[in-house]
Specification:
It catalyses: Hydrolysis of terminal, non-reducing beta-D-glucosyl residues with release of beta-D-glucose. This protein is of the alpha/beta class. The protein is built from 17 helices and 15 strands. The radius of gyration is 21 Å and the shape is globular. The protein binds ligand GBH. Ligand GBH binds next to helix 8. The site of ligand GBH has 15 residues, from helix 8.
Length: 465
Amino acid sequence: MSRGTFPDRFVWGVSTSAYQIEGANAEDGRGPSIWDAFSDSQAACDHYHRYPGDVRLMKDLGVAAYRFSVSWPRVLPEGSGRVNTAGLDFYERLVDELLSAGVTPYATLYHWDLPQALEDRGGWPERDTALCFADYARVVHERLGDRVHTWFTLNEPWVAAFLGYGAGVHAPGRKSAADAFRAAHHMLLGHGLAASALRSAGAARVGAVLNFAPVMTPGQVTDPARELSEEDADAVARIDELVHGQFLEPMLRGRYPERLLNVVESAAGLGHVRDGDLAVIAQPLDLLGVNYYAPSVVRAQPGEPADPVYPGSDGVLFCTVPTAVTAMGWPIVPGALTVLLRRLSREYPDQELMITENGADFVDTVTADGIHDVDRVSFVEEHLRALLAALDEGAKVRGYLLWSLLDCLEWADGYQRKFGIVHVDFATQRRRLKDSALWYRDVVRRNGLGDGRPKRPTLETVAAR
Ligand code: GBH
């Protein structure tokens, strides 16, 4: 059992993304993004105007790091070519504010808000978008590179490609497996080109952020060591390659998983994967960002048709499990984070990691005397214990960035989903710290958890029921 303290210099922070908090979508020369047309963001958190107050909140919380994203269409309204200096000015003001508050900025270059102009030219399924992305990375680094030392290229390319181009539930709402695979490859290529551009421009640390939903059977949710039938093992491996291997292997080993290539080929052909691309994609990564929310629970089910989110998933059934869930209905399985970090450490032993997102939406109890979100406190606490277990085993996890600082715009789900440790009243834009923010401040201050036991049933107690 771990003592509950984290390594020296462990980085505590919070994460957000541009489209989810900034608002001001038509201000100071920003061009439209694919999300403007897809969901009406209104003012979001009006962070574009309220960033000094938001930075003050971070300072009050005592966090060392803030991961935000840069809006591509704010910097390049047409996606390429003309630079909108007013857009860069905003990020410069934000970064300066952070630095003077003692908060280290971590910049993500792409958190899903593709300039609409590039979508009009074919979007990520077109190779040219990858080249434009590298140019954009250069432009942003040129302005901020003297002050921002940690850069993430992409956030969750799987989500952007497969929910955006494959299943059509995210912008730009296209529904084609071929487009999704082509988009994924071009995002990887864009990552590689941008990473090498950042590196040659002198960036200190370059990383990428992937979404991880450890794939397990219902039996493994309660007993991670459970042996699988051949059929279930195959179902797990196929989904794992699609969601994780498709990105991890090219980025970290310069290759695609063999079996996945067959799926890609039958959906999209392989003409878009050119000689030399994988070498470009496999840039050394200083930091792999790990976003973890929930596992994917599957088992083999002969005859089951493919899920549109997961091309080639015929014969795989996505299951619900009798664990506690968040308001989104996502199963709460902290132990899956330990399993995930153990696996990454085993397969990519030299790779430094950072938890770049973890958190949950719950229905908070809003009262005059405070905002009570005991479920969120329990969620984060249990995940931090799961992280400690992995750290004790030697996982190279350098920090934990909680999603999210603010209640914000949850993409296609709108404003009803609350992931913040700070409550936002969208009518007045008033911010109020939730109990979880006060609790997180103590964790950060102590660099560790108290002695309190988690309040929610753990994996073990679920198994025992
Ligand atoms: C993150 O994505 C985002 O980076 C962030 O912007 C967002 O606000 C946050 O999480 C909270 O959602 O088969 O369609 O049900 C999380 C992405 C969520 C990806 C769940 C896959 C299930 C796929 N993941 N999801 S689906």
